[in-house]
Amino acid sequence: MQQSLGHKDVSTTMIDTHVLTNGAHGVRSPVERTQEPMKYVLTLTTAFLLLLPATPPVFAQGAGIEWEILNQEGVELLRTGKYDRGVVVAQKALEVAESSVGPDHPDVGTSLNNLAFLYDTQGQYVQAEPFYKRALALKEKALGPDHPDVAMTLENMAVLYRATNRDEEAEALEQRATRIRAIQR
Hints:
Blueprint: H1 2-5, H2 10-22, H3 30-35, H4 37-51, H5 65-79, H6 83-101, H7 106-121, H8 125-143, H9 148-163, H10 167-182
Helix pairs in contact: 5-6, 6-7, 7-8, 7-9, 8-9, 9-10
């Protein structure tokens, strides 16, 4: 094909083959492409500015390596049944998250949920519930009410409510979590 088109370069053959098979519609010369770069910059800038107020804040940077290590340690302590030590580590992870990313970051919500879960696992429901509620409020605000992390906290709270014979409240949370999980992403 290259020789029949008089080309030695594969990329040139690919461009010409595209033009031959698809027609020249929409194909612009290099000169045409260099004359309109500002049009594209303007279009992209306009699109960005229009989308900016409609998008929730993006939390590109997390609470850091110390927080991640503490969370991993807390999970391991939970797994091995060392709950008292797990609570201490989870409290430290919460402190690290709040000081490094502020009180409204999703990592703080994760720390709150983890701490609540540790209390919940030990049957310390009175201590667990406020942490679950705060985690839920934070995650809904930071991530949106239909985020999978919100569903996880709802499910955890439902387990606590079932354990404390608050079945109607548990049922409502479970139904909401199920609706969130059913959303196609």
